[in-house]
Structure formats: structure tokens, C-alpha cells
Amino acid sequence: TAILKGPEDKVNLTCSHTVSSYDTILWYQQSAQNTALKLIGYVRYTSPMVEDSFKGRFDVSGDAAANKMAYLHFPKVTEAEDSAVYFCAASEAQCFTIPSLLYKNPL
Questions:
Q1: Average per-residue pLDDT for the chain
Q2: CB distance 88 to 72 below 8 Å
Q3: Are 6 and 76 in contact (CB under 8 A)?
Q4: pTM of the predicted model, to two decimals?
Q5: How far, CA to CA in Å, does 23 sit from each of 12, 38, 80, 98?
């Protein structure tokens, strides 16, 4: 779906899924200038997280586990790179720690 908005306009995108075990919805941006997918943020259960480079420009919200929905909000379109393709993805959250990365080994 294409959405045409002007400067200062608000934009709200919605994403949903139907996989019962998925509890996380992630939002990505792919701009014309840089075709790599950039993680904007995600909702795990009902807890939102926005990457530092997108804070202040985007908000995420929703309930990825019970309602299976998440939202990406642009309070206002302000930058040329906001003109981009936006993707959402759903998954099971997997959290783990690699102990060897937690400590610096003295030389």
C-alpha cells in the first residue's frame, strides 16, 4: 500500500499476525538512499522499544502477544528519508546472553 503524505503530516501504520506463539512485532525501514533494512523498533508483548537513531521521530505501540497487533506512528513527517518502504515482521522473542562477551579479558 502506498501512502502519500506531506511535511508535518501524521502517519500511522498497522501490522498484525495470526501465529499464536509469536510475541514480538518488529518494524523496519528501507530508504531509497540506503537499501539495507534498518530496525526502527519493536513491541515485545506490550513493551515498546525504539532504536536510538529513530527516537523522537517514530513511536511504536501495541500488543504483539494477545491482540497480535502493533503500530508504527510518525508524529510528523520531517525528513526526506522518511519517504521509504516500511516492513513489519513477527517472531518469537529469543533472549540469551553470551557470557564471554560480558567480561573483558585482561591482556
A1: 83
A2: yes
A3: no
A4: 0.80
A5: 21, 20, 32, 22
Whole-angstrom Cα distance, residue 29 to residue 27?
7
Closest C-alpha among 47, 40, 79 to residue 62: 47
Containing 65, the helix (H) or strand (E) segment is none
- Give the C-alpha separation, 38 to 16, whole Å: 20
Tell me if 64 sits within 8 A of 7, measured CB to CB.
no
Residue where the block lists cell 591482556? 107
- Predicted confidence (pLDDT) per residue in 12-41, tens digit: 899 999 999 999 999 999 988 888 899 999
